[in-house]
Amino acid sequence: MAADFYNDSLNARCSIPPLVNRKAKSGPTKVSAGGISFGGDEIVIIAGPCAVENHEQLSETAGIVKAGGASMLRGGAFKPRSSPYNFQGLGQEGILMLKEISRIHAIPFVTEVMDTRQVEFVAQHADMLQIGSRNMQNYPLLKEAGMSRKPILLKRGMMATIEEFLLAAEYILSQGNDQVILCERGIRTFEPTIRNTLDLNAVPMLKHMSHLPVIVDPSHGTGHSWMVPTMARAAVAAGADGLIMEVHYKPGEALCDGYQSLDPDDFRQLMTSLRKVAEATGRKIL
After folding, report:
1. Which of 114, 208, 214 is nearest to 169 (CA)?
2. What's the gap between Cα 57 and its chain centre?
3. Is position 169 within any domain?
4. How far is CA 219 from CA 14, 198, 252, in A?
5. CA 81 – CA 156 distance, rounded (Å)
6. Chain segment 43-78, per-residue pLDDT in tens
7. Is 7 domain-assigned?
8. How many CA atoms lie within 13 A of 21 on its CB side?
9. Which helix or strand (DSSP H or E) is residue 280 part of?
10. Coil, helix or strand for 80?
11. What is the pLDDT of residues 145-195, one digit of tens each?
12. Inside any domain, residue 132
């Protein structure tokens, strides 16, 4: 009775789109990307640099995250930056570099698309497409990505409500593509000491409302590398299906987001502690 009242109250406050709605399926959706499954009992770790800078940086970092226990490599080739004078990424050259390094280290990769014109090329090479926070409500891009039939990692907009986030995912599912992973990456609040406020409330709420897998980005969610381990462990404890984290083999030399990137030792130590948290919740790291 109490549960029915709660659900009725929730539905009155937030309209859950039909395709992402938990009631649309008999069980949770499992998303497969590059042979890696999201949404089951195993927690998937995605790690790598914010941006692809050069062959050495990407190859060294890929080797580190693979050896440390990550199942997927991340790296940006097309970078949306607040300032037009900051490093914007290597573009198609970076995508091809990601593909090469992915093959060498036998680890699939996810990378961001920013424009409908990029989707076809990136989809030919990447194992999963990322739509970033700034493009969460870029509806033509959402539809184009959906039509690619590639798995999509959709990040929550920095000022988006959960309802708006689910509606963005609905755009992708409406194109016949249910291979969507929701990513909580922090929202903008009045607090200036952190880059964003990591909304871990969103993890159980999204899993209550939707059948899609939910992962967390503690790097963008905090903006401080020293905070990433604590919030990563908290995200796993909250029930996240995975984590996406920034790791750089030399964070002090990074062209993008070095201040929130883990160094190799910190990443290895974090992975050790994450396995213990996962075990305590009856799960394990993939």
Report:
1. 214
2. 21
3. yes
4. 28, 9, 16
5. 17
6. 999 999 999 999 999 999 999 999 999 999 999 999
7. no
8. 11
9. helix 264-280
10. coil
11. 999 999 999 999 999 999 999 999 999 999 999 999 999 999 999 999 999
12. yes
Contact between residue 94 and residue 121 where contact means Cβ atoms under 8 Å apart: no
CB atoms within 10 A of CB 264: 19
Burial of 109 (0-12, 13-18, 19+ CB in 10 A): buried
The answer to whether the CB of 281 falls within 8 A of the CB of 37 is no
Query: Cα(153)–Cα(150) distance, rounded to whole angstroms?
Result: 10
- d(CA 156, CA 237) in angstroms, rounded, equals 20
* CATH code at position 160: 3.20.20.70
Instruction: Please give the angle made by the CA atoms of 200, 129 and 281, to the nearest 5 degrees.
Output: 35
Place of tokens 């900051």: 86
Q: For residue 253, which amino acid is it? A: E
Strand-pairing partners, residue 44, are 242
- Residues pairing with 216 in the sheet: 184, 243
Domain containing 110 equals 42-281
Can you tell me which residue has the tokens 């969103």? Answer: 202
- Judge whether 17 lies within some domain: no
> How many distinct helices (H) and strands (E) make up the chain?
10, 11
DSSP state letter for 216: E
Distances in Å between the alpha carbon of 224 and those of 31, 137, 206, 260?
Answer: 30, 27, 25, 4
What span, in angstroms and rounded, lies between the C-alpha atoms of 29 and 265? Answer: 34
Number of domains in the chain: 1
Whether this model's pTM surpasses 0.85:
yes
